[in-house]
TrEMBL record:
Keyword Repeat listed: yes
GO CC term (a single one): transferase complex
InterPro entries for this protein: 5peptide_repeat, WD40_repeat_CS, WD40_rpt
Repeat positions for WD: 212-253, 294-328, 336-377, 640-681, 682-723, 724-765, 766-807, 807-848, 849-890, 891-932, 933-974, 975-1016, 1017-1058, 1059-1100, 1101-1142
Annotated protein name in UniProt: WD-40 repeat protein
UniProt keyword Repeat present: yes
Keyword terms: Repeat, WD repeat
Length: 1226
């Protein structure tokens, strides 16, 4: 079958329901089936499908319909599997150069087709059980990554991937336990928060291999052994380390010896010579012992070099001389005055016949080794710092101040000149084939084409000067020393493209290009979210970048003029413009086109700030005064004088009525904009105030300082509330979350810290940036924090509330929750037919009541808390005694599902609504039906009594809301406006307003006097299932099938905040009587309690990813438990390296032991280190990261058989066996 038919085959998936894939994968895994096609073809396996469908909470008719659809879907899927098995897609690697054309074509064809995306995900998961589709699944994963499909929080347990590239994949919080990778490129992937238990990753390709620490002084020499299996490194303290390239283990040879200016290794790497002021020590690197010392020198030794055969050691001195020593007999062979200035560098030619020397006298001289005579001399216009012969001896590289010269040895003519960004410290080295020259500077490694002198690539990732650089013998690894550490990278020589100003992030074996950058990116100075939170703008040198927050991909960029570089950017309130402020201008860019709409010019180079209303500009002048101007006209309004030193920061209050200023005089001053007077001075810092920020409500001010602290101030009183300490360097940026309860601070210590504004306590510390943090910005909903840094990256951090406790007990979806009137008890009803009572203070279950024969849909406490009413799918209503949990009454009458029950405010009546289209009123004391209210044309989903007991509201699938006289049962009025079913209705406490939520995703507020709609909230993206007013009536909580809870201002209809955490849709929301706690129930089987005041969740997060939530080990060390997001608790045999299935006899016994340990947080370290993490890294350079990735045993080996575990740890990963061993010992 032709390859062109791949798109056609994938297109058949449009008829397949997503749930079918999930069901098939579940059956294949649980039943241990390795032949998917064979299983699906056998009709006798239909009973197994029926068995799994029976477990679903569906009616008999719905189950029959579901089975029918699945059978139809299976027929289509079988046809897809049969045909795709014959294509190259299931047999060839689509990520290599030969197949890139097909890859790009299929991506172009399928991009944006949801059904095909789900089919590709199915292929990936299918590899876990069916080996016939491993290449198909591998190519599918490659396509998903290249289409920027969101793969965060996916369950990829036991998948098998081979022969593909996963470059740049975002696997945040994915479950990859048991996965097997073979010949897979993982360069630049994000494994933050992933679970990696018992993985088998072999022949892995990755660019950056390892960062090796261990030296206490700057590393001045790195050198590979002749066979490439060892890397030797030495520092200026003559500390020498030997790194095993296969295992990554370091062996130290020499420790704390005399200070060395230069060290060099013999060609066979058996002898090390360390040179000091007037001595040379020879060391045996096999034994680590000193062989001998030479002490007969005049002048400090500047450079040393062994001859190619290792028999001669050449030494260059500060006294302008060169010494030649016979290594074997350790005697001087010759001495000659070589230069008129210090000899800074010497180097033997590859054949050993010639010695080259470079000097501060601006010459390079060539010497005949046999005669000691000068052969020739090259004159230079600058001092010569270092020299190096090419492998063939025809070219000499020479470093001067700011340049590298490539010289023809035979003619002495310059072949090419390379201009460097760095002037002094620089090491360089030829590749073994002589075609490439690597040069190291302060922040980058440059790879240059020797023939053309053009830059081929730049390697970044270090912070500090490069003092030594070296290629491995096979030219695939580049090692270089940086300050107190050294790095090594793997390099693909075939994947280089010529051209200036281009950066490539290199691969190993594949020809896959990772990224090409035109105009090298610089430091990130400022970041800003668009008002809708979908776009992030970042400011780098001469460019504004726009990023898609969801995918992390660049959307566009705006080049800036060369003569005026801005230092801060900000979106306009409507999101259509970006404002950039430089030292002398303000530009207003059109977000859509990138064109400058208008600009303002001023002539100062000090801080500026624009008022929130966009009308006023505050600008600092040279005399430390602050000038207020009209923004568009430039007309001066007033001059604010008071600071004694330079003003370093400005910030307007949210209402624009106040201006705060921070200064190098260590003070903060408040200014009244209306009367242009100073209101108060805040003293507290002992260093310059670098950053200030008002809280969203303008009540608090945060300030960051050069004294490394943050102060929180009360704006009204000017009193300091807290001083926040922890940063070890300057606090460059402070930023409040949109709700004002969290403060983020970024520092030159490379960390970000999150603080609880109410308590002043640190919540989290975010590590990840490799250089100073310069800018912070919260997304509008407060769930994401963006940070910019000098490391040229922007990181997006997932910011979720703190976790305290967990309410577990239901085994199916939680359908309804209700607080007792005193707020001490929470009741929950579930599709598991039970009702649970919880002690809110302790979080413990009080007792469970059973009696209903089907799902409990609704529960409600009586006003006196003595009785609980429940309505069920079994068509009955039951009344329970709260103290004992005993059933008091059963009310029969409804002919279909009871959807909601509600007590009247006096507790005398109970209202119920049902799928039978009726509302019924019951006498609670007598247990008798009072009346039936008819009026709706389909199911009635919700009912609610007004607080004065006069009205009853009902919402129905007929899109209507009816108002009834609660005493007579007569219909009073009809409210019409929803375009879908009304699922929830709720009266405000004052009885003036009725809120309703429904199938059309909207929440509507109704004026009960006029019967007209007052306003509408459209924040949810799916059906609104439950709403509830706070006791004071100021806030409306809503739960939705979009899995979110939102708090809406009941007066304005504007969203106050959003709570995320549930992994399935919200079925019920309920405020506690005092209004400080919100309870939510969900189809994810969980209940969560939220602190409304500080917007923090008080229940443990559960998400559909199997990510580790906590881990503990039994005292005997044989079994590990991981409390994860999807399965609750997973048990692992620590000795056999495999998961204990729930079918094993030992499972229940072990599970009982673990529940106690996990609930007691016996290993809280794992919970702390697993959150929060970078969910997206926005950078022009791809970077491999693994912050809080949890690894247990397993193998991670690259194609050179090097163990990558050290790299994973350096990138933030955690190997649990190390932690667990420490715990057992303690």
């Amino acid at each position: 079958m032709a390859e062109g038919s791949l798109f056609e085959i994938l297109s058949w998936s449009k008829q397949i329901q997503e749930s079918t894939y999930n069901l098939i994968i579940e059956i294949l895994k649980r039943e241990n089936i390795s032949d998917c096609q064979g299983f699906l073809q056998e009709k006798c396996n239909q009973w197994l499908l029926q068995q799994y469908i029976e477990k679903e909470n569906l009616s008999h008719i719905e189950k029959q319909e579901r089975l029918k659809n699945i059978e139809k879907n299976i027929g289509i899927l079988l046809n897809i599997l049969k045909n795709i098995q014959k294509l190259d897609f299931n047999n060839k690697n689509y990520s290599i150069k030969e197949n890139i054309k097909q890859q790009k074509k299929i991506i172009s064809d399928i991009y944006g087709i949801h059904s095909i995306v789900e089919l590709l995900k199915f292929f990936v998961r299918l590899t876990a059980t069916d080996s016939k589709f491993i290449q198909c699944g591998s190519n599918s994963l490659n396509l998903l990554i290249n289409m920027n499909i969101d793969l965060k929080e996916q369950n990829f347990e036991y998948i098998k991937i081979k022969n593909t590239s996963l470059i740049g994949a975002n696997f945040v919080r994915c479950n990859l336990s048991g996965s097997e990778f073979n010949n897979v490129n993982i360069s630049g992937i994000n494994l933050n928060g992933a679970q990696l238990f018992y993985c088998k990753w072999k022949n892995i390709e990755i660019d950056q291999l390892q960062l090796v620490n261990g030296h206490t002084r700057k590393v001045i020499k790195v050198c590979f052994s002749p066979d490439g299996t060892k890397l030797i490194s030495g520092d200026c303290g003559t500390n020498v380390n030997l790194l095993d390239m296969k295992t990554g283990k370091i062996k130290s040879f020499l420790r704390k010896q005399r200070f060395a200016i230069a060290i060099c290794l013999s060609p066979d790497c058996k002898i090390l010579a360390s040179c000091g002021n007037s001595y040379v020590n020879f060391w045996n690197l096999t034994t680590g012992r000193k062989i001998s010392t030479l002490n007969c020198f005049t002048g400090e030794i500047q450079s040393a070099c062994f001859s190619p055969d290792g028999t001669i050691l050449a030494l260059g001195s500060f006294a302008n001389t060169i010494w030649l020593w016979d290594v074997k007999i350790r005697k001087k062979q010759s001495l000659f005055t070589a230069h008129n200035g210090r000899v800074s560098s010497i180097c033997f030619s590859p054949n050993g016949n010639t010695l080259a020397s470079g000097s501060h006298d601006q010459t390079i001289r060539f010497w005949d080794i046999e005669t000691g005579q000068k052969k020739s001399q090259l004159n230079n216009s600058h001092r010569v710092y270092s020299i190096c012969f090419s492998p063939d001896g025809t070219t000499l590289a020479s470093r001067n101040e700011g340049t590298l010269l490539l010289l023809n040895i035979e003619t002495g003519q310059q072949k090419s000149l390379i201009k460097l960004d760095y002037h002094y410290e620089c090491s360089f080295c030829f590749s073994p084939d002589g075609n490439t020259l690597a040069s190291g500077g302060s922040d980058t490694i440059g790879l240059w084409d020797v023939k053309t002198g053009q830059l081929k690539s730049q390697l970044e990732g270090h912070n500090g000067c490069v003092y030594s650089i070296c290629f491995s013998p096979d030219a695939t690894i580049l090692a270089y020393g940086v300050e107190k550490q050294y790095r090594f990278y793997e390099y693909d020589w075939q994947d280089q493209q010529k051209g200036n100003n281009s950066i490539r992030l290199w691969d190993i074996k594949t020809i896959q290009q990772k990224s090409q950058l035109i105009d090298q990116p610089r430091v990130v100075y400022s970041v800003s979210f668009s008002p809708d939170g979908t776009t992030l703008a970042s400011l780098s040198y001469k460019t504004i970048f726009l990023w898609d927050v969801k995918t992390g991909k660049q959307k566009s960029n705006f080049p800036l003029s060369d003569d005026d570089v801005p230092f801060i950017i900000c979106f306009s309130p409507n999101g259509t413009e970006i404002t950039s402020c430089s030292k002398s201008r303000i530009h207003f860019f059109d977000v859509r086109t990138g064109e400058v709409k208008y600009r303002c010019t001023y002539n100062e180079e000090n801080p500026i700030c624009i008022s929130p209303q966009g009308t006023t500009l505050a600008q600092v002048y040279w005399d430390n005064s602050i000038i207020l101007k009209e923004l568009k006209t430039g007309k001066e309004i007033s001059n604010l004088i008071g600071h004694k030193e330079k003003v370093t920061s400005l910030c307007f209050s949210p209402d624009g009525k106040k201006l705060a200023s921070g200064s190098e005089d260590n003070t903060i001053r408040f200014w009244a904009i209306k009367n242009q007077k100073q209101k108060s001075i805040l003293n507290g810092h002992t260093g310059s105030v670098i950053s200030i920020c008002f809280s969203p409500n303008g009540i608090k001010l945060a300030s960051g300082s050069k004294d490394n602290s943050i102060c929180l101030w009360d704006v009204k009183t000017g009193q300091q509330r807290f001083q926040l300490n922890g940063h070890t360097k300057v606090v460059k940026s402070v930023c409040f979350s949109p709700d004002g309860y969290t403060l983020a601070s970024g520092s030159f210590d490379q960390t970000i810290r999150l603080w609880n504004v109410e308590t002043g306590q640190k919540r989290f510390q975010l590590n990840g940036h490799s250089k100073e943090v310069t800018s912070l910005c919260f997304s509008p909903d407060g769930t994401i924090l963006a940070s910019g840094s000098f490391d040229e990256t922007v990181r997006l951090w997932e910011i979720e509330p703190q976790q305290k406790s967990q309410l577990n007990g239901h085994i199916k979806e939680v359908t309804s929750i209700c607080f007792s009137s005193d707020g001490t008890i929470l009741a929950s009803g579930s599709q598991d037919n039970s009702i649970l009572f919880w002690d809110i203070k302790t979080g413990h279950q009080i007792f469970q009541v059973n009696g209903h024969d089907s799902s409990v849909n609704s529960i409600c406490f009586s006003p006196d808390d003595a009785t609980l009413a429940s309505g069920s799918n079994d068509k009955t209503i039951r009344l329970w005694e709260v103290k004992t949990g005993k059933q008091k009454l059963q009310l029969n009458g409804h002919t279909r599902t009871v959807m909601q029950v509600c007590f009247s405010p006096d507790g005398a009546k109970l209202a119920s609504c049902s799928g039978d289209k009726t509302i019924r009123l019951w006498d609670v004391n007598k247990g008798q039906q009072i009346s039936i209210l008819n009026g709706h044309s389909t199911y009635v989903a919700s009912i609610c009594f007004s607080s004065d007991n006069t009205l009853l509201a009902s919402g129905s699938g007929d899109k209507l809301i009816l108002l009834w006289n609660a005493k007579t049962g007569q219909q009073i009025s009809l409210l019409k406006g929803h375009t879908g079913g009304v699922f929830s209705v709720c009266f405000s406490p004052d009885g003036i307003t009725l809120a309703s939520g429904g199938e059309d995703n909207s929440i509507r507020f109704w004026d009960l006097k006029t019967g007209l709609q007052k306003m509408q909230f459209n924040g949810h993206s799916d059906c609104v299932t439950s709403i509830c007013f706070s006791p004071d009536g100021t806030t409306l909580a809503s739960g939705s099938q979009d899995n979110s809870i939102r708090l809406t201002n009941a007066k304005t209809g504007q969203q106050n905040s959003q709570f995320n955490g549930h992994s399935n849709w919200i079925s019920s929301v309920c405020f506690s009587p005092e209004g400080t706690t919100l309870a939510t129930g969900s189809k994810d089987n969980s209940i969560r309690l939220w602190n409304v005041k500080i917007r923090q969740q008080i229940s443990q997060l559960n998400a559909p990813t199997c990510s580790v939530q906590s881990v503990c080990l039994l005292p005997d060390g044989t079994t590990l438990a991981s409390s994860n997001y999807e399965q609750g608790i997973c048990l692992w045999d620590f000795t056999k390296h495999q998961q204990i299935k729930d079918s094993d006899k030992s499972f229940n016994e072990l599970l009982g032991k673990y529940k106690t340990l996990l609930q007691n947080n016996s290993l809280p370290m794992f919970q702390q280190c697993a959150y929060p993490i970078t969910i997206t890294l926005l950078s022009q350079k791809l970077s491999f990261i693994a912050e809080s990735a949890m690894m247990l045993r397993g193998e991670f080996i690259n194609h050179r058989q090097m163990d990558l575990r050290t790299l994973f740890e350096q990138k933030g990963g955690i190997f649990l066996e190390k932690k667990l061993q420490t715990t057992l010992q303690n």
